[in-house]
Amino acid sequence: MLIDKDPYHCFMPYPPIAVPNGDGPLSGLRLAVKDIYDVAGYRTGNGNPLALAMSEVKDSTCPAAQALLDAGAAFVGKTHTDELAWSMYGMNAHFGYVQNPAAPGRITGGSSSGSAAAVAGGLADIAIGSDTGGSVRAPASFCGIWGLRPTHGRIPLDGVMELAPSYDTCGLFARDGETLLRAHSVLQSDDAPLPDIPRLLWPVEMMDQLGEAQRAVCDAGFAELGAAPLVGLYAQGVDTVYQTFLTTMGADAKKHIVPYIRQSGMPLVRGIDGRAAAAEALTEDEIAPACAARAAFTAHVDALLGTDGVILAPVVHDAPFRFDAPVEVFDDFRHVSQRLLCVAGLAGLPQVVFPAGKVDGAPYGLSLIGPRGSDLSLIRLAMTLQKDVE
């Protein structure tokens, strides 16, 4: 890393190799990069010690990071990730826990834990994360910062570890919307900008998954916007849609990350070993109907949004829990939260997260889900809607 101190354990302790940058719209901003992205002069560890040992020193930087460097951002280090980017807690058993600057003693969220903490703790101004099942969105909510899961396929993922390519995206973190917009404007354009007055939608089934305190943050954050009730977002029911997500993501992982795991013989920690085994066990009789259900869900949500619809969405169901929470909290949180997170992932839609309030003294973010290609105008809309958070 290229910074002097790392009080939040954000960064991988690589030898500090300077990375050239240019001069442009991101000049003056410090950039951190999740350690599943290749950066010239560094190894790529993917959150696993055997993967790190197998990695050669890279001679080129992945296009997403290179674009930010060329635009003037200054590289400050590679950040910790959950093992193989396949968890959402920021607690890597091999490399240690990332600390949450906004909520000491609570999880930072994964798998982009180091990137989120680096931004929240003021050690970087922008940071690259990845979002497959929620790995930008959940940490942004937990750390009280901004983050974007972009429209799927809009930002190239060459030189990046594959987990589940039909879900994998490159997203950024920032402490404010203006900086997030400034950085994402280097990576993408507004392919399908929102109209000046978008059609705001209140997702009844999403809100019904929240507790009283969490719902109060949503009510306060989106008060007086005149959003129209949206019923039927989960056309086949919440549990069925979630199962479609699990199966299709697992099928992708079976094809891409599981062979890498098995061929290397790498050991996996509890939780990730179970996910790899479940993915490996999927049959074509399970995968084919799930892929068809995903296509139908995507078409359904596209029709609901049209070109002007925006869903006012909770990010996850709760604030970050404590590191010493009972094991059942760890086992349950991922499944409950991904019933909310899976909507944008399944449909490949952009979702921007912004700070909105606190629950039990810890950050709790809100978000907007928009039509595909509306990424930059979705950030602009969030900037107009977001209220000051103490």
TrEMBL record:
InterPro entries (UniProt xref): Amidase_CS, Amidase_dom, AS_sf
Listed GO MF terms: transferase activity
Nucleotide-binding found in the keyword field: no
Assigned keywords, A-Z: Transferase
Residues covered by the Amidase domain: 23-197
Keyword hit for Isomerase: no
PANTHER family, sorted: AMIDASE 1
NCBIfam families, per database record: PRK08310.1 (NF006169)
Protein name: Aspartyl/glutamyl-tRNA amidotransferase subunit A
Lineage start: Bacteria, Pseudomonadati, Pseudomonadota, Alphaproteobacteria, Rhodobacterales
